[in-house]
Design brief:
heterodimer; A: about 110 residues; mainly alpha; Molybdopterin biosynthesis moea protein, domain 2; two-stranded antiparallel ribbon; 3 helices; about 35% helix; elongated; disordered C terminus; B: about 290 residues; 17 helices; about 70% helix; globular
């Protein structure tokens, strides 16, 4: 799963989360997850003021973006002083899973 | 040994050496003591200072609070509360210094405010806006130390790097005090309410927080989250130890933490954009 600005969206990408109108994130979704994007759909989303969307996998390689392995190594380094604390261990696991999911691997997490 | 500490305290409590407080604050302070003062009246006083109002409204509309449609000061007073608006007014000069001199610390503060907001909402803790504001203010002590102890700051930075210390440890080693205590002194000298000053003073030492331990625990946890997310720069790269007391009073569990982290990581993109927009706005102003 990756969050991308709508202007980088392309046809054939698949929505990983429901899309809401920009001004009412708690309202009714305007496009459901699992939908395959088309050019006209992207145009309509833009027209409704949607700024960013979540898509399956990790289709857009952003400049300066670090690989999954690099990101996980950075994470371990940040937690290096507190590995022994069990609450920090829980938090480290949560972050590990989150980063893995965001980088397109499912990381053993059930679909949202 | 305590000489340094009391010297520093004297300097900090001496309001004359602090970044200038806007004149409206004095008026506001005298008003809020008087219970009859209406929100409208207070809003009028703040609104009379246009630069200050603009800064407050900008923050009130930041992702850290999540309202986005606060268009007037009286609106802000109703949505965020009088305490919050007053605190934002009081700290506006400190925020200005952060934005100019240490954008990393400013982003860390915005991030902690956002994380505190998300955590408090998720856990159903009341006074979310106060807690977010305490998050925004939790490291003001670092700004003061940076201003008053420029030489010692070099030693502190050096100690963090060579001995792999937390900034808190380095500050204690070199100054005999730390940013939490200094922030607490400043909060007291501003007469901030306890619900804001306690989280500032005790976000690294929850056991000492008596009357607002839940708020202090949220700010502590939010600080840990932002360090784990590597958002902004608070002086050292290490995630702090989660205080078991925080885990306990907030009744955290893995599922809750998962939800909070997912929402936070999402929101941090907005916070980054907000910070960039503010920098651009400030550059064009100057």
């Amino acid at each position: 799963m990756q969050k991308i600005p709508l202007n980088l969206a392309e046809a054939e990408m698949v929505l990983a989360r429901d899309v809401f109108r920009n001004d009412s994130p708690a309202g009714i979704p305007i496009c459901g997850k699992g939908t395959t994007l088309t050019d006209s759909l992207i145009g309509r989303l833009a027209h409704l003021g949607v700024q960013s969307i979540y898509v399956e996998g990790h289709p857009v390689q952003q400049e300066g973006e670090r690989s999954l392995e690099e990101q996980l190594a950075d994470l371990e380094r940040r937690f290096s002083k507190t590995g022994a604390n069990r609450y920090n261990q829980v938090l480290l696991d949560v972050y590990r899973k989150h980063i893995t999911t965001m980088m397109g691997e499912d990381g053993g997490r059930t679909a949202e | 040994m305590d000489e340094r500490r009391s010297d520093l305290k004297r300097i900090i409590m001496d309001t004359k050496t602090l970044p200038t407080l806007p004149g409206v604050i004095t008026k506001l302070n005298s008003l809020s003591e008087n219970d009859k003062a209406s929100v409208q009246e207070m809003a009028r006083i703040v609104a009379s200072d246009q630069v200050l109002s603009a800064r407050i409204l900008r923050l009130a509309n930041s992702p850290s609070y999540g309202f986005y449609r606060v268009s007037t000061i009286s609106n802000a007073m109703i949505l965020l509360g009088v305490n919050v608006v007053k605190s934002l007014a009081l700290s506006s000069s400190i925020f200005e210094i952060m934005e100019k001199n240490s954008i990393g610390l400013w982003e860390h503060s915005l991030g902690v405010a956002t994380a505190a907001n998300i955590t408090a909402k998720k856990l159903g803790i009341p006074e979310v806006e106060e807690i977010a504001t305490a998050g925004l203010l939790h490291d003001i002590g670092k700004v003061i130390i940076g201003l008053k102890c420029t030489d010692e700051m070099l030693d502190i930075r050096h100690a963090i790097e060579t001995d792999e210390l937390y900034i808190l440890e380095a500050e204690r080693q070199i100054l005999d005090t730390d940013h939490a205590e200094v922030g607490g002194w400043l909060a007291k000298s501003w007469y901030l309410p306890d619900k804001l000053s306690e989280p500032i003073s005790f976000h690294h030492n929850l056991i000492k927080s008596d009357s607002h331990r839940v708020k202090a625990a949220v700010v502590h946890f939010a600080d840990v989250l932002i360090k784990a997310s590597a958002f902004g720069d608070s002086g050292d790269p290490y995630v702090p130890m989660i205080d078991p007391l925080a885990w306990e009073v907030l009744k955290l569990d893995e599922k809750l933490v998962e939800d909070i982290v997912a929402e936070l990581e999402d929101k941090l993109i907005e916070v980054k954009n907000f910070s960039l927009e503010m920098q651009i706005a400030d550059a064009t102003e100057a």
